[in-house]
Amino acid sequence: MRHVIALDVGGTGMKAALIGVDGSLLHETRRPTGRERGADAVVEGILDFAAELRAYGEERLGESALAAGVAVPGIVDAENGIAVYAANLGWHDVPMRRLLSERLDGIPVALGHDVRTGGLAEGRIGAGKGADRFLFIPLGTGIAGAIGIDGRIEPGAHGYAGEIGHIVVRPGGIQCGCGQRGCLERLASASAVTQAWAEASGDTDADAADCAKAVESGDPKAIAVWQDAVDALADGLVTALTLLDPRTLIIGGGLAEAGETLFVPLRAAVQERVTFQKLPSIVPAALGDTAGCLGAGLLAWDLLAKPEHPGAPTPPSTEVTA
Fold first, then answer.
1. Residues 283, 49: contact at Cβ < 8 Å?
2. Do 46 and 162 belong to one domain?
3. What is the Cα–Cα distance from 72 to 84, expressed in whole angstroms?
4. Among 102, 127, 196, 259, whose Cα sits 20 to 30 Å from the Cα of 110?
5. Nearest-angstrom CA–CA distance, 187 and 176
6. d(CA 198, CA 207)
7. Which pLDDT tens digit goes with each residue over 19-36?
8. Which pLDDT does position 320 carry in this prediction?
9. Per the structure, how many domains does the chain have?
């Protein structure tokens, strides 16, 4: 059975899959990233994981993987296959594409940024399917974005497009790791809500999910914390839609798991702020934490569709660049 290898590398865990030509998950598995062992060990763990998947495919599916796709965090040079920098993994300038191809007996390898790769999957087979313009924004430890335009993900001139988390929405506000103050991700990410709710509730173990539950029960302190985050997020989103005019805004990540507790006030807050702009649909992500892995598989199939790989199977959809 024809398939590709897909890997989604996160700061805590790695997700991997074998994905068929129709985009189906033929095999899925996970394991810890092991970042406490250091950057070199993480890279070796990725290579070993990919090799194990290749062996599994040969044994169980009767055929070797045709290609591999891998999504990694941080700064990514997708064109040259370099994982440039990831603070949470401690690596610099890792030639990921070359290393993986060598470990996998020379098969072609595609490398992508984790959020853009997740956006690729959401746009093609998830919540953005059929939308000619969309913006995918996961609200997790931080906030980033993937800009979908006519069936592709826009990386920008230097690979930095979509970094909506570093739009300043509260000038002079909380210090951000990027060097600015008042960045969106310091106010509306899951980690920001966790910090604000822990301080407001006095419970150092409380997190964003606890805050959402307290909002649903009518706790006034929780409602205040939640509304502050929603207002900041709405300000950032209106800036983004003013610049990009997306047809659909796809919100994912841990904070989106609150469901309508997030989406009802968020839609209202965005609607209050638009003037001449066209209001997009604001919808939850559909693929959950499998988006990055599915997107990595799509990258691999797209790679096979390029002229330098003649005779490969037709991928699930048209070529997409991430």
1. no
2. no
3. 10
4. 127
5. 10
6. 7
7. 998 888 899 999 999 989
8. 41
9. 2
Residues 277 and 149 placed together within one structural domain of the fold: yes
Q: What's the token pair of residue 137?
A: 């924004």
Within-domain flag for 321: no
Please check whether residues 80 and 189 belong to one and the same domain: no
| β-bridge pairing 133-138 and 146-149 | antiparallel
Tokens of 260: 């309508």
CATH for 162: 3.30.420.40
What's the whole-model pTM score? 0.88
Q: Distance (Å, rounded) from C-alpha 282 to C-alpha 74? A: 26
Strands 68-72 and 3-9, by their bridges, are parallel
Summarize the confidence of residues 176-187 as an average pLDDT.
Answer: 93
190-217 pLDDT, tens digit per residue, is: 999 999 999 999 999 999 999 999 999 9
Q: How far apart are CA 78 and CA 111, in angstroms?
A: 5
Range of the domain at 297: 3-117+288-304
CA nearest neighbour of 45 among 18, 72, 76, 74? 72
